[in-house]
Amino acid sequence: MGLIKEFKDFAVRGNVVDLAVAVIMGGAFGKIVSSLVNDVIMPPIGLLLGGVNFKDLMIVLKDAYLDPAGVEVAAVAIKYGNFIQFVVDFTLVALAVFMMVRLINSLKKKEEAAPTPPPPTVNKTEVLLEEIRDLLKKQNG
């Protein structure tokens, strides 16, 4: 029974819930960025480069062939076009995260830079009483 309670305490802790939400939102955001790169950014770039589809860019090391049993063996290739798309994906995600962190930090700085209220004024009677107290301590002490 103790293990279940400990797990429940762990699972409903604020940080774990926040992390779970962040992971879910990050996964959805990653899909959006991938679609942006694959469907919006790369096609015009490919068109500018002469109608190139980046997914098709590869260096074939060994062509596909049929083995003696008649089964097709896939080609061996370095698919650098896919790699380029993933680099663009990563760059856009990293840029978005950087901008969010930068925004959060600027909001924190504004909060920290808020003017502090002036110190309370001390009236003259309190100052005189403190001086009298200090003098009495010196005489008795």
UniProtKB/TrEMBL annotation:
It holds the Pfam family MscL. It is a multi-pass membrane protein. Keywords: Cell membrane, Ion channel, Ion transport, Membrane, Transmembrane, Transmembrane helix, Transport. It is found in: Cell membrane. PROSITE patterns: MSCL. The chain crosses the membrane at residues 12-33, 83-101. The keyword Cytoplasm does not apply. It comes from the Bacteria. Homopentamer. Belongs to the MscL family. Channel that opens in response to stretch forces in the membrane lipid bilayer. May participate in the regulation of osmotic pressure changes within the cell. This is Large-conductance mechanosensitive channel. The lineage of its organism: Bacteria, Pseudomonadati, Bacteroidota, Cytophagia, Cytophagales.
